[in-house]
């Protein structure tokens, strides 16, 4: 049950970001975060609100989330800048029981799965919740899947004895394991495990469960445990952000809904990056796509980064550019190229994105940064190589991008001189 604190919880943060004084509740929260009174404020959202109020020199009031090992906290924080720092007043402090951990412990990844189910049905086995990863595996979308019968998405496969564990579990109100199934959309094979949802009077409310990809003939599963470990929390981020953007829990300010949409888009892009890093080549067939349209989409994904850096994005050239490629990989490449250009451009600079069509269709991304010296022109395409100072990026983006481009029959080229900016060009085979 949720509990609240009626009086504001106060604290003081000095110019160095240290929590110098605080009410007992805030002191306990600071200690739960591994810090102490007099040390750097260790609650990330409170520290960010304090930093922003000090930087802007204005009072701020906004929500924040925090947690201890026993509870989740919904806070409303007011930050008032002073000559020596920032005064915090937590005007709303709502404490709720801590959620069950959503992802497995690192050391037991192979044996455990997070508490959040991949699918949830109602009493008539219609889908009421579906994880983004499961939807992708089935070749469907969340919008199409919600409300559809589970058996409309997957075909249950009987075991050697003719039994269907999932249906037996429904009849007997018990858990089930390794129900073989195949997607009706794309034929992918998987195993379902789960348990019934039962009401307070014992009534059947539906099923909830997880999926596992069936092992290939080689005995190896397509995804490594490391890939799964990273993908599962990102799936949660995507699902929660989309639920916030859809205003599933009530009215929400339009700018907050837009932020949630941006978060979901960025998390989906990061999932694509992880998939690419885990493969030696970009698997899957190419298709006819519009390179110019994907450039516009990629620019939208990094617009917030450009705004924060004070860099303008300018798009010109042909408005339609059909090519043969894979849309996710192309978007990933363009996000990387445009993001790099923004990072290397000066404040008030311009990044130009130009779509053109010749022997091959191409997108050029030109920045106004320091450029790349000839000696580094090829080295920056190697894994873990960086021209910029260490600690800025991992040196993987351009290596992955060029590999993806070449896997699709294209390439990435660079034109630059030190001190004169750089132009990276993605070229792909034309699709007409």
Structure description:
The chain is of the alpha+beta class and 432 residues long. It folds into four domains: 3-97, Beta-Lactamase, CATH 3.30.450; 106-213, Beta-Lactamase, CATH 3.30.450; 225-277; 287-428, Histidine kinase-like ATPase, C-terminal domain (Heat Shock Protein 90), CATH 3.30.565.10. The protein is built from twelve helices and 19 strands. The strands form four sheets. Strands 1, 2, 3, 4, 5 and 6 form a six-stranded antiparallel sheet that branches. A six-stranded antiparallel sheet has the order 8-7-12-11-10-9. Strands 14-16-17-19-18 form a five-stranded mixed sheet, with helices on one face. A hairpin with a 4-residue loop joins strand 2 and strand 3 (19-22). The longest helix is centred in the middle third of the chain and has 24 residues, at 254-277.
Q: How many domains in all?
A: 4
Structure summary, number of beta strands = 19
Supply the helix-strand structural class: alpha+beta
Q: What portion of residues belong to β-strands?
A: 25-35%
**CATH architectural group of the largest domain:** 2-Layer Sandwich
Morphology: flat
Low-confidence stretches: 100-114, 215-226, 279-283, 383-396
Please give the radius of gyration in angstroms. Answer: 25 Å
Number of helices: 12
Q: What's the end-to-end separation, in Å? A: 61 Å
The name of the CATH topology of the largest domain is Heat Shock Protein 90
Mean pLDDT: 77
Question: What is the CATH homologous superfamily assignment of the largest domain?
Answer: Histidine kinase-like ATPase, C-terminal domain
Reading off the top of the CATH hierarchy, the class of the largest domain is best stated as Alpha Beta
Biggest beta-sheet profile = 6 strands, antiparallel
Helical content stands at 25-40%
For this structure, the quaternary state is: single chain
